[in-house]
Amino acid sequence: MPEVKSRRGEYTEATRRALLDAAADLFTERGFARTSLDDVAAVARVTKGAIYHHFSSKPGLFEALFEELERTENGAARAAFEAEEDPTVGALAALDQFLLACSEPVYGALVFREAPLALGWDAWRLCEEKYSYALLSDMLDAMTAAGRIPAHRGEALTSIAFGMLGAAGQLLARTRAEDRERVRGECRAPFVALLAGLAITE
Amino acid sequence: MPEVKSRRGEYTEATRRALLDAAADLFTERGFARTSLDDVAAVARVTKGAIYHHFSSKPGLFEALFEELERTENGAARAAFEAEEDPTVGALAALDQFLLACSEPVYGALVFREAPLALGWDAWRLCEEKYSYALLSDMLDAMTAAGRIPAHRGEALTSIAFGMLGAAGQLLARTRAEDRERVRGECRAPFVALLAGLAITE
DNA sequence: GTCAGTCACATACTCCGAGTATGTCTCTGA
DNA sequence: TCAGAGACATACTCGGAGTATGTGACTGAC
C-alpha cells in the first residue's frame, strides 16, 4: 500500500526539484559551460554538497534534466505519431509537435543546443536512443514498411534526418518569440520535401 | 622584393606548424576537451608559453586549425561547384567532394565534431560563414535563381541543410575506413531526395 | 525512552588545467 | 656594441569540478 512519503522524503524531493529547476534556468540562459555548480546550488539555496548527494557529476545533473524533458516532450510527439493511421501523416504530426516543443524556451535549448556540449556527441546519442532518435527511427521504419521510402536505406538517412531535427530545434531555440510561428512553417518545408523526394527516389 | 625570411622567422614558423600538427592529432584522437595545452606543447616539444605566444587561447588555437582546414578543403568543394554549369549538378559535385574530405581522418572530426564543442555553436557558425555555410548558401541561391527551388525560401532551409552536412560529416568521421565508401553513397541519397522534393514542392 | 545507524545535506579541502606575469636568451638594426 | 624586440621558458594565480569529512535530524529497534 502506497504509504505517504515521510516528511524527510518530501523535503529531499523538494531540494532535488529546486536543483533541477535552477539548473534548467541557468543552463538555458548562460549555457552549460558557463554555469558553475556553485551557481546552481546558490539559486536553489543549498550548497554543492546537495548536488553531489543527488547527482553523480555535472554531466549527471544535466542528464537527469535531459531525461525529464525528453520523457514528457518526446512522449507527446510519439503520441502524435501513433494517433495517425498513415505513417507519413503521423510523422508530420510528430514533427509539428516537436517544432512546437522547441519553441518553448527550455526544451530545444537544452536537448539540442546544450546537450551535445554538456554530454559529448556519443553520450548524447546514447541518451537519445530512447527518445527522439528512437522515435525518428521508428517512424522511418513504419514509412519503409508502408512503401513510402526505399527499402534498403542505411543508417545514414536516420543520422542525417536526426541532424535536420537538431538544426531545426536549435534554430527555433534562438528565434525570437514573435518570429517562431513563421520559422516553424519554414522548418516544416525541408522535411516535407525530403519525404516527397524519398517517395519518388527508388 | 620578397627577401628570404630570417632564420628566426623560419624557426618560429616551424614551431607554429609543430603546434598546429600536434593539436590536430590530439584534438582528433582524444577530443578538444580531453587534451590539455600542456599535452599539445609536449608533443610539439615546446612549452605552454609557446602556445600563448602564437595563439590567443585554447579556442584560438583550435580556430587557427579550423581556418587552415576549411581554407583548403572547402576551397576544393567550391571549385567543384563552380566547375559545373548546372547548379544542381555542381551542388552534388561539391557534396561528393565534401563527403570525401570528411572521410579523411582529420577534417570531419575537427570541423564538424569538435568545432561546436570547442568554439560553441555561435562562434562555430560565425567561422563557417566564410566556408561551408557560405558555400551552401551560395549553392542554394544559385539553385533558386535557376528555378530549382521555391523562390521564397527562408533561413530555415539553409540551417537545416547545414545540419544535414554536419550529421553526414560526423557519421563519416566515425565510420571505419572499410565502410566509408558505402556510407558515402548512403549519405548522398538524402541530399538528392531533398533537392528532388524541393523541385516539385512549389 | 534512548541509542545506534542512516539520511540529507554543509563545510573544507584537493587537484587539474587555462590563463598570466615575468624572466631569459638570441637575433637584428642603428 | 648596445638597445630593443621577438621567441620562447618558467613560475605563478585562479576558478571550478570533484572528494573527504563533519553534523544535525530523523527513524527504527530494543
Please supply descriptive tags for the structure shown above.
homodimer, 202 residues, mainly alpha, Arc Repressor Mutant, subunit A, Tetracycline Repressor, domain 2, 2 domains, elongated, disordered N terminus, DNA-binding, transcription regulation (chains A, B), Homeodomain-like_sf (chains A, B), HTH_TetR (chains A, B)
**Which word captures the global form of chain A?**
elongated
Let me know the largest β-sheet of chain A. none
Rounded to the nearest angstrom, the distance between the terminal CA atoms of chain A is 58 Å
Domain tally of chain A: 2
Oligomer: homodimer
Which CATH class of the largest domain in chain A? Mainly Alpha
Count the DSSP helices of chain A: 10
Calculate Rg of chain A over CA atoms.
19 Å
Q: H/E series of chain A, N to C? A: HHHHHHHHHH
| Count of strand segments of chain A | 0
Protein name (chains A, B): TetR/AcrR family transcriptional regulator
Keywords (chains A, B): DNA-binding, Transcription, Transcription regulation
InterPro entries (chains A, B): DNA-bd_HTH_TetR-type_CS, Homeodomain-like_sf, HTH-type_TetR-like_transc_reg, HTH_TetR, Rv0078-like_C
Domain HTH tetR-type (chains A, B): 13-73
